[in-house]
Specification:
Number of strands: 14
CATH topology of the largest domain: TIM Barrel
Strand content: 15-25%
Distance between the termini: 33 Å
Radius of gyration: 21 Å
Shape: globular
CATH architecture of the largest domain: Alpha-Beta Barrel
Order of helices and strands: EEEHHHHEEHHEEEEHEHEHEHHEHEH
Number of domains: 2
Structural class: alpha/beta
Largest sheet: 8 strands, mixed, barrel
CATH class of the largest domain: Alpha Beta
CATH superfamily of the largest domain: Enolase-like C-terminal domain
């Protein structure tokens, strides 16, 4: 039974140069491990609270010294010397010590950093890879690697808002290995970079998650350029490479209307816009197609999309078991975007995962816009049998750390990528039937 000997923490910087938290957990048996937590830019209102210092003379108020102090003092004083038979026992003890509904006292960033560091130290003490330890936490077999969905173009809060929708991602649908998936994506990204230079007279400047961010005229131009890049890279859109979109609708939703590309749309109008995109482009996943508070219309969106694409909830669900239960009861989604720091502990994220699987949903394991070079997310996506992994683009070291870890796991285990079912073009449109069979 792992016994915590000491907890220690440090304020470090994420990929945007903003502070975040790194924790080290030392066990009585001698095993020790360190883990760093990410931070989001496009955050849902229901997320657990990242504790920030609020001192605007330092990092604009974004410092994490209070969260670090809570690990070095409150959590260390309460947990050092205690044995925990399971990850759940540790996480429950921290949630109880915090005593708030959203981890506002100690900070979700402090609690999650300890949760992750304990998991990694326990895996080291057991002498097993982290992905195997994560699989054992859930009791799931190691069977496949997640299929990557990789950022190509960015807008919204990831790129300064030059266009409302947040990301267009490529999905290497025909790739059979992670190596092949990344090589395919590299070719698409380079084609997109050349297109950006030719069409917008821009050199390669990347957004928060590494995607390209030229001044698109509208969402249609963003999607058109993505399809062009796929073709110019030598692939068939919808057959070899598909698209996923992160609409992030909450950020252009105001007073019950969606303000998109100079139009003011009601919920039905936004749904019709998404359906038009599905007819015209090889889209297999639609993330946050409606605003997080537009609950009444999410079932309508899910019904309208049907099996044509995943109806993926991020801001809607916030990896929050209560919100997932509500969405399940309403038929509001078909997939969960799982971000561990939205809920604040591994155990609560595992509960969210189980609820999604019980509903028959797909699960995408996701990074955040503010990431670190820590690669635990790759192990989590493999260990928890994620259908897809969303890390960002094929640029920047905080993104590549996860992809390189996936390549190492592939070499070590020979696990295949999850299978994507063949899709057929229909009629004269560019539409596809993306009935994903990922498990």
């Amino acid at each position: 039974m792992p016994t915590i000997a000491q907890l220690a923490a440090l304020e470090i910087l994420d990929s945007r140069g903003r502070p975040t938290v790194q924790a080290t957990c030392m066990l009585a048996g001698g095993a020790a491990a360190t883990a760093s937590v990410p931070s989001g830019a496009s955050t849902g209102a229901a997320e657990a609270l990242e504790l920030r210092d609020g001192d605007h003379t330092r990092y604009g108020g974004l410092g994490c010294r209070r969260a670090v102090a809570h690990i070095n003092h409150d959590l260390n004083n309460a947990l050092a010397g205690r044995a925990f038979a399971t990850q759940g026992e540790l996480d429950a003890a921290m949630v109880a010590l915090d005593g708030t509904p959203n981890k506002a006292r100690l900070g979700a960033n402090a609690i999650l950093a300890v949760s992750l560091a304990f998991a990694r130290a326990t895996a080291a003490g057991r002498g097993v890879p982290l992905y195997q330890h994560f699989a054992d936490l859930l009791g799931v077999p190691l069977a496949t690697l997640p299929r990557p969905t990789i950022n190509l173009f960015s807008g919204g809060k990831h790129a300064g808002g030059q266009i409302p929708i947040q990301d267009v991602l490529v999905v290497p649908a025909a790739a059979r290995t992670m190596d092949e998936a990344l090589a395919t994506t590299y070719a698409c990204f380079q084609a997109a970079a050349q297109l950006t230079a030719r069409k917008y007279s821009m050199r390669v400047l990347t957004a928060d998650e590494g995607g390209l961010a030229p001044p698109f005229a509208n969402a249609q131009a963003m999607l058109d350029d993505a399809v062009t890049a796929i073709r110019e890279a030598g692939f068939v859109p919808g057959r070899e490479v598909a698209l996923a979109i992160d609409v992030a609708s909450s950020h252009f939703y105001q007073d019950g209307r969606y303000h998109l590309d100079g139009r003011s749309l009601d919920s039905r109008g936004m749904i019709d816009t998404i359906l038009d995109w599905l007819d015209r482009y090889p889209i297999v996943s639609v993330e946050d197609g409606l605003a997080e508070d537009d609950w009444a219309h999410w079932p309508e969106l899910a019904a309208a999309i049907g099996g044509r694409a995943l109806v993926l909830g991020d801001d809607l669900l916030c990896t929050n078991p209560a919100r997932i239960r509500r969405a399940r009861a309403m038929g509001a989604a078909t997939a969960l975007l799982l971000k561990v720091n939205q809920i604040g502990t591994l155990s609560e994220a595992a509960e969210a995962y189980r609820l999604a699987r019980a509903a028959g949903w797909r699960v995408t394991i996701s990074a955040r816009s503010g990431e670190t070079e820590d690669n635990w997310l790759a192990d989590l996506a493999v260990g928890w049998a994620g259908d897809q992994i969303k890390v960002g683009s094929i640029t920047q070291s905080e993104r590549l750390a996860k992809y390189n870890r996936l390549l190492a796991i592939e070499a070590e285990t020979s696990l295949p990528l999850v299978r994507s079912e063949k899709r057929e073009r229909k009629g004269r449109s560019n539409a596809i039937k993306p009935l994903w069979s990922l498990l």
